[in-house]
Amino acid sequence: MLSRFLQFVTISLILRLFIPFFTDSVSLREANAYSFLEHRSMPLLQSLRQGPLKISVIGSGNWGSVIGKIVATNARNSYIFNDDVRMWVYDELVNNEKLTHIINSRHENVKYLPGIRLPTNLKADPSLEDSVKSSHLLIFVLPHQFLKRACQTLAASAGFHPNAKAISLIKGLYVDDSHKPKLSSEIIKDTLGIECCVLSGANVAKDVADGQFSETTIGYTDMESAMIWQQLLDTPYFKINGVPDVAGVELCGAVKNVIALAAGFCDGLNFGTNTKAAVIRQGFEELRRFATYFYTGLVEVVTTFLCICID
């Protein structure tokens, strides 16, 4: 009983430490960190009374393995999160050996992230349903064409925690029968009935895995989500910025690559810097118009563009 009491006191102190830090990092001037601690309607933080938050990474490719490495390292050094992080792996044979067995025994994803050692508390699981059982935090980082089926499977099993939250690291847009683009975060929210934030940035997976400095942006729905995801994902070399605009971050993260291609074409065709600057400017203007047309009232255009399009 005494140890549980001490753990709860420790968690409370940690929350008081990291909340002001995050508020500064995302420039949320209107946020009052200490009144947040007294807010009784934040169910996920209240779940800490029953123990640390459980984490699941859904996807184990190049980027998924890097994110698994980050969150498992942070979880191991925190009282807020459960030490063991489960990562769903689509099991396949690599040199006649199951990839899940290789990851769990050698602590390396030899197919998708070779040469990078993974934390021992990152556990590969071939079962999608088992990998999210009782989890509070679901990190989606799989190819977008597999997202709908994965969400349908998770919705049918309903094995994650009732107060679970999700974050999508998926780039790509869906187009439904009404010819309106649909975001990955919308599919997760609509199918699973949970809030979903978004992480996106100009991040090369191998560079992040090697510990090279980079920044990224989280589009969040509420302050509780923002603070928890920042605490889980932020490292000295992978810095998190936040903006209260899920749709804007996800759209910019997906469509800005088209602008990057156009800028590259300018270099390949030996166009001058004036032409390249014009292409980039017009590309951003088209992106702004696209975002405001399809997501009027949801996209904080100026704030999000400064956070992610320049990233």
UniProtKB/TrEMBL annotation:
Signal peptide: 1-33
The keyword Signal belongs to this UniProt entry's keyword annotation: yes
Sequence ranges assigned to domain Glycerol-3-phosphate dehydrogenase NAD-dependent C-terminal in this UniProt record: 245-295
Coiled-coil annotated spans: none
InterPro entries cross-referenced by the UniProt entry: 6-PGluconate_DH-like_C_sf, 6PGD_dom2, G3P_DH_NAD-dep, G3P_DH_NAD-dep_C, G3P_DH_NAD-dep_euk, G3P_DH_NAD-dep_N, NAD(P)-bd_dom_sf
GO biological process, one term: carbohydrate metabolic process
Gene Ontology molecular function, alphabetical: glycerol-3-phosphate dehydrogenase (NAD+) activity; NAD binding; protein homodimerization activity
SUPFAM superfamilies: 6-phosphogluconate dehydrogenase C-terminal domain-like, NAD(P)-binding Rossmann-fold domains
Domain Glycerol-3-phosphate dehydrogenase NAD-dependent N-terminal residues, every copy: 54-225
UniProtKB keywords: NAD, Oxidoreductase, Signal
UniProt cross-references to NCBIfam families, sorted A to Z: glycerol3P_DH (TIGR03376)
Name listed for the protein in its UniProt record: Glycerol-3-phosphate dehydrogenase [NAD(+)]
Organism per entry: Cardiosporidium cionae
